[in-house]
Amino acid sequence: MRFPGLTGFLAVLFAGNVIAACITIPEDKKVIVFDSKLGDVTFAHLKHANLSITECTTCHHKYQPGDHVMQPCHECHKHSARDPEPPKTKTALHTRCIGCHEYTIASGVPAGPVKKKCKLCHVK
Fold first, then answer.
1. This prediction's pTM
2. Domains, the chain, with CATH or none
3. 9-68 pLDDT, tens per residue?
4. Among 38, 54, 76, 80, fewest CB within 10 Å belongs to which?
5. Can you spell out the DSSP letters for the chain?
């Protein structure tokens, strides 16, 4: 493969390192199942990490370089009547997941389910 100069080479090398560092997903987190009243949602975590997303912080927005443990969504996205911020896990996931699917589809690339097709994700 021929690289367009040193800048291009460094860009490819850096991008590869970001992706490689980010997709070291533990075996028990490669597929995550969220319990829901409408039916369990099975999330292909490894598959999503291997898509064109190049940074873990795209989804794990509170992750800081050097952190040794990735916190689960519900650690921060708890919801109580006294403290409505941050949004509950359900709201955060619907916003993040559906928003990304809609954005991806709008750019002409096939993506996962969007609004009003709940049973494509929620399976009883």
1. 0.68
2. 5-123 (3.90.10.10)
3. 333 333 443 444 455 788 998 999 988 899 999 999 988 888 866 577 788 888 877 777
4. 80
5. ---SHHHHHHHHHHHHHHHHHHT---GGGSSEEE--TT-EEEE-HHHHHTSS---GGGT-TT--TT-SSPPPHHHH----SS---SPPHHHHHIIIIIHHHHHHHHTT---S--TT-GGGTEE-
